[in-house]
Amino acid sequence: MKFYIVKWGFKKVVLLKIKSGGRKLKKLSAILITIIMSITLSACNNKTNESNQQYEDAMSNGKSSVVEEEYDKAIDYFDLALEAKKDDKEATNLIKQLKLMLEIEESESHGAYFYQMERIDKINAIDTETDVVKKKANDYKKVVLKNIDDSIDYLEEKINDGDYEKAQKDIEDFIKECKKSDSLGEQLDRCEGLLKTCKAEKKKAEEEAKKEAEEQAKKEAEAKKSSSSEESFTRADAKRMLKDTFGTNEYDESKDYDTTHESYYVLGDEPQYINGKKVYHVELWDYVAEDDWWMHQTCFISKDGLE
What we know:
The chain is α+β, with helices and mostly antiparallel strands.
């Protein structure tokens, strides 16, 4: 009987070379096969244990990195976990969640609140055994909701400032975005209420503006009519009114009024405008016989009379 030493994987195996013949040979062959299978199973178990440990370590480190908000680093750890356990659902889904978290972070400077909310909803919809990423997403969700509420406050200010056209358009856009997320039910109700208020205030403002325009048009028409009437008042009209009212004539330089003691008036040649009214300057002279003196009065005359 001879002995041979050969390698089987990482193990050295002793093989016996036995002369053929009888039950002894069969018994030794069975023993040899059992030894070989035991060594093989041991090697496989060791390899499996090493892979499991690598997986567990990578998953643990990945979760710790998520807690520290080191999302890129966490993705690298979960990739290592996939190397140890190919197609692992937990590691795969955690990576999907983290990529969405990175998209949320990248959009912070753009104020894309609805974009962020959409990704938070997607994170919560991905099935994982651990909620480590969901917890971070939902913590950030509070910030996003606060930002959206502040934006709605600003829309309300626009309504109060009378900027109805812009406010209505923005509110309608907000309503479309709010309808995309079940997390924004409260914000949706608020926006729909603001839209009703905005439309009502807009209609009220339009009616008031129309009324003011009609009143202004009426005033302008009256002013135009009055202006036309004012312009039609001439110097000859003024002379006629003075004659009819006082029974006097216009000053005549050919007369000697100190002798005749006749009343007269001096009328301006050119009209003047006082508060938009056309007038002529006039001086009235009346002789008071009892006192032997001239009473002098200065005034204006318009189509409405002396002023």
